Amino acid sequence: MFLPQKLALIILMIVFCLNWATPALADWTHPLSFSNAQLTKRDFSGQSLQAAEFSNANMELTNFAGADLRGAVMSASTMTQANLHQADLSNALVDQVNLTGADLSDANLTEALLLGAVFTNVDIKGADFSDAILDKVQIKELCAKASGVNSQTGVETRDSLGCQL
After folding, report:
1. What range does the domain containing 19 cover?
2. For the chain, how many structural domains are there in total?
3. Range list of H helices, 48-133
4. For range 36-60, the mean pLDDT
5. How many CB atoms lie within 10 A of CB 123?
6. How confident is the model at residue 13 (pLDDT cuts 50, 70, 90)?
7. Assign residue 67 a region: left if phi > 0, alpha if psi is -120 to 50, beta otherwise?
């Protein structure tokens, strides 16, 4: 092959590789970032927010009912009186989050990291905490009010927390 033909072939291969790799790279990055945002009283109900970033956000009175929050990062946020009814928070990072007065009824918190989260006056009826990471004090507090069965997973809240009878 002549030099111009080799060069054209190399350029064609590079262009093809760049076009092929771009969609894969887009899937790898976080689609949404709300870090440090003021999201008070916002309505995210039913939305797909997988792997979204909410670190240090103020989400007081925010509606996440039925939202897909799998793998979301909510570290060090304020979620007082937030509505998380039937939200999917599996594999989410919910560490150091103030959930005072929040509605977690029928939520899926499977394998969520919840260390340091504040659960004062939360509604957890039917919530599934299977394999979630909680400390002993949190488990004791949650077991005192645990009841119900999760409608999506069929797991009893008390069983998911490992509560003693």
Report:
1. 1-30
2. 2
3. none
4. 97
5. 18
6. low
7. beta
Output the pLDDT for position 86: 99
- Are the CB atoms for 87 and 106 separated by under 8 Å? no
DSSP state of 28: H
Residue 60 sits in a domain whose CATH number is 2.160.20.80
Distance CA 138, CA 134 (A): 6
Are residues 74 and 6 part of one domain?
no
The β-bridge partners of 133 are 113
Using the predicted structure, report yes or no on whether residue 21 has a pLDDT greater than 60: no
Q: Give the residue from 122, 126, 121 showing the smallest Cα distance to 109.
A: 126
Segments in the chain forming alpha helices (H): 3-28, 136-143, 157-161
Its sign, for the CA torsion 114, 140, 65, 56, is negative
Same domain, 140 and 106: yes
Q: Note the pLDDT tens digit of each residue in 97-131.
A: 999 999 999 999 999 999 999 999 999 999 999 99
65 contacts: CB under 8 Å, gap ≥ 6: 45, 46, 83, 84, 85, 86, 87, 103
Q: What is the CA radius of gyration of the chain?
A: 21
